[in-house]
Amino acid sequence: MMIPVTSGGIMDLRTVLYIMDIGQPEDDCRTIVESCRRMNAHLSILLVKPAPPLPFNNYPAMIADGWVEQQCADMAELAVRRKGMEGTLAREHVALDVDDIYSEYAAMGAIAATRARCADITLMHRKVIQYNGVQWPALIGVLFDSTSPLLLLPDNEDFTFEPKTILLAWDGRIEAARAARSALPFLKRAQTVHLTLVDPEPRVGDPDLDRGGDIATYLARHHVCVTVDELPAFGQSISQVLLRHARDIAADLIVMGAYGHSRLRERIFGGVTKAMLEDATMPLFIAH
After folding, report:
1. Four-residue CA torsion sign, 85, 160, 127, 122
2. Among 21, 22, 179, 226, which has the highest number of CB atoms less than 10 A from its own CB?
């Protein structure tokens, strides 16, 4: 089923946050800078470097000296990198600022979340995301403790803020609805949005909700050209079906809700979300 429209939307992102590992080359943000210039958006770059934890053994004074020296060296490295990027990007004629995070692993998520709350969207590259790695708490903080959606960019591939073909994963749950609403600036610019359902099971008394009828109509009112795709799993996982379909339709972007729950102080992703974070090779727009 396709719901046609006659006009496109306007990209209305005004503040873009890019969380960047200190080890990343500046070329990683070139496409982002160019996109922000075209959109007249402000780009905030946040350089991240983890602080070493304070070690403990039988010689605390000796260890403390080494730990302090390491921190001083790290902070000096961050300052040099930040000033270098500010100087280089000042020639790009785009509104931007460069800041940094130097904190222990446990606090990094809260700091990233605080910055993301004042951004329309947060960007990170997949190559700096490793499960339970250095950048993982920043990803967790943005997704679960801010209102900003996260756009996870693929490695070694340019990205456009105007994708032509988008796969929107839909299951009728609140996370999927939030992701769809947050992604409207992208959906309205796309030529086709494939609203994709895997083995949909209609609810009693509300058969259209989970089958995509209501959300397709909602998107069409926002001038989104929607195609509803219902796919059987045939024994495959939902993430496998979504990724295969994304390749089949040559999707430039996947939009989905982030599912998870809290166990003690650790956020645990649902199986589909975790698999998509690890396995998707195209840009992934996720919101909780």
Report:
1. positive
2. 226
Length of the chain: 288
Q: What digits encode the pLDDT tens for the residues 56-82? A: 665 655 566 777 888 899 999 999 999
> What integer best gives the mean pLDDT of the chain?
85
Map out the domains of the chain as residue ranges: 15-153, 162-287
Helix axes 238-248, 271-279, angle to 10 degrees: 40
Q: What is the CATH number of domain 162-287?
A: 3.40.50.620
15-153: CATH architecture:
3-Layer(aba) Sandwich (3.40)
